[in-house]
């Protein structure tokens, strides 16, 4: 059954507030009247003044909740070494823990550095019942030239993911 509520998650810390607010503004600017957005801002570090900035964007048919997250269990997963090409921060790895942090059957994860150009209701209502996630191949990755990416068979873009 399709509905008009879209659950969306962003991950943000104090260093990523402006890009994330820009993404949220673009989301709001392209929202159809019938669509309701439930926005979750998952954070391991966000000041009270920045929390208020997010809460200031709450409007009719747009809910914004700031969800604190502990990154202790992620520490050690991502170790930046001299030969490492990983660009993900520990906070960015929180996206893979969203099912533990947010009580929704389905959630659309969006990176904070995107611009939304249309309403997301149709994307959200895509049937991915038989899958853990709806993702796309990261076709433009600059990392394909590195051997460690060539070994990964199904490398996908984790900046937009529809998660069951």
Give an overview of the whole structure.
There is one protein chain. The chain has five helices and six strands. With 164 residues, the protein is an alpha/beta fold. The chain has a six-stranded mixed sheet with strand order 3-2-1-4-6-5. The radius of gyration is 16 Å and the shape is globular.
- Total strands: 6
Find the structural class using helix and strand composition: alpha/beta
CATH architecture: Alpha-Beta Complex
Order of helices and strands: EHEHEHEHEHE
Please report the first level of CATH classification, the CATH class. Answer: Alpha Beta
Whole-Å distance between the termini?
Answer: 15 Å
Inertia-based shape: globular
| Radius of gyration over C-alpha positions, nearest whole angstrom | 16 Å
> How would a crystallographer describe the biggest sheet?
6 strands, mixed
Number of H- or I-type helical stretches:
5
CATH level 4 superfamily: Spore Coat Polysaccharide Biosynthesis Protein SpsA, Chain A
Q: Regions with pLDDT < 50 over 5+ consecutive residues?
A: none
Tally of structural domains? 1
Q: Report the portion of residues in β strands.
A: 25-35%
Helix content: 10-25%
Query: What's the rounded overall pLDDT mean?
Result: 85
| CATH domain topology | Spore Coat Polysaccharide Biosynthesis Protein SpsA, Chain A
Strand order of the largest sheet: 3-2-1-4-6-5
